[in-house]
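Structure first, sequence second, as always.
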């Protein structure tokens, strides 16, 4: 999951605002709370816009009195942070990507994916030429056999030339 919320203009990015899942709010570096923009009438669910985003806002009064305003929101009256409704799943994926097991899994998966890419590109298995499930299975087995024979040929040492 790519995180594109970093800013290059010297202002605070979204990662500088920790999210409290239990209270459903962000906390700014000055300690103030950013709450969801609006709540749906008679429910506690936040308002989700057509892009699937929940908008969190700081109070204008808090931002006006804050000494960090030039680093936080220099061009707007208050700081706003959009959060996707799928951000919880993205956070979980980011946590999994930091584990050692993920690195090993990625390395192993890359080996298998490279074999499939080789089958498709080099051995031209981009489409099946035979019809039916049995014929498709046979064609895949033949391509895999050819791939294994090529790997085996690379493992066998070449004989040294015999001087005449």
């Amino acid at each position: 999951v790519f995180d594109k919320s970093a800013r290059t203009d010297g202002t605070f990015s979204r990662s500088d605002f920790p999210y409290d899942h239990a209270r459903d709010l962000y906390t700014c570096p000055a300690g103030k709370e950013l709450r969801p923009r609006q709540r749906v009438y008679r429910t506690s669910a936040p308002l989700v816009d057509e892009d699937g985003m929940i908008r969190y806002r700081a109070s204008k009064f808090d931002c006006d009195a804050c000494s960090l305003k030039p680093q936080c929101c220099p061009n707007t009256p208050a700081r706003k942070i959009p959060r996707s409704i799928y951000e919880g799943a993205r956070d979980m994926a980011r946590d999994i990507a930091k584990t050692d097991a993920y690195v090993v899994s990625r390395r192993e998966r890359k080996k298998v994916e490279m074999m499939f890419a080789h089958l498709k590109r080099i051995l031209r298995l981009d489409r099946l030429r035979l019809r039916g499930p049995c014929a498709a299975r046979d064609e895949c087995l033949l391509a895999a056999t050819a791939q294994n024979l090529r790997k085996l040929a690379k493992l066998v040492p070449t004989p040294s030339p015999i001087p005449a």
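Margin note: The chain has two domains: 14-94, 100-155.
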